[in-house]
Amino acid sequence: RRDGVDDRELAQKAETLRRQGGSICLTDFCPLAVSSTAIRARVKNGQPIDRLVSESVAAYIKQKNLYAEE
């Protein structure tokens, strides 16, 4: 959950979503302070990004050859 988010309001919205047939999973996490500029620079310089983005995002960037040096 994000700091500053009211848990009661979030729970109400989650219940509304469930009643409409949706699903949601709430989890606590520690957000990383990393910019997209830093990620692009690391990819361009051949540095790892595996601890900065999810595995699926890293795979997509590699598959599409995004941010590679031209």
Please describe what this structure looks like.
The chain has 70 residues and is an all-alpha fold. 44% of the residues lie in helices and 0% in strands. It has helices spanning 7-19, 36-44, 55-63. It starts with 6 loop residues before the first helix and ends in a 7-residue tail after the last helix.
Keywords:
70 residues; elongated; 44% helix; mainly alpha
**What oligomeric state is this?**
single chain
Kindly provide the radius of gyration, computed on alpha-carbon positions and rounded to a whole number of angstroms. 17 Å
The main pleated sheet reads as: none
Kindly report how far apart the N and C termini lie. Answer: 39 Å
Low-confidence stretches: none
Shape: elongated
Counted by DSSP, the helix tally is 3
Per DSSP, what share of the residues sits in E-state strands of 2 or more residues?
Answer: under 5%
Short description, anyone?
This protein has 70 residues and is mostly helical.
Topology readout:
Blueprint: H1 7-19, H2 36-44, H3 55-63
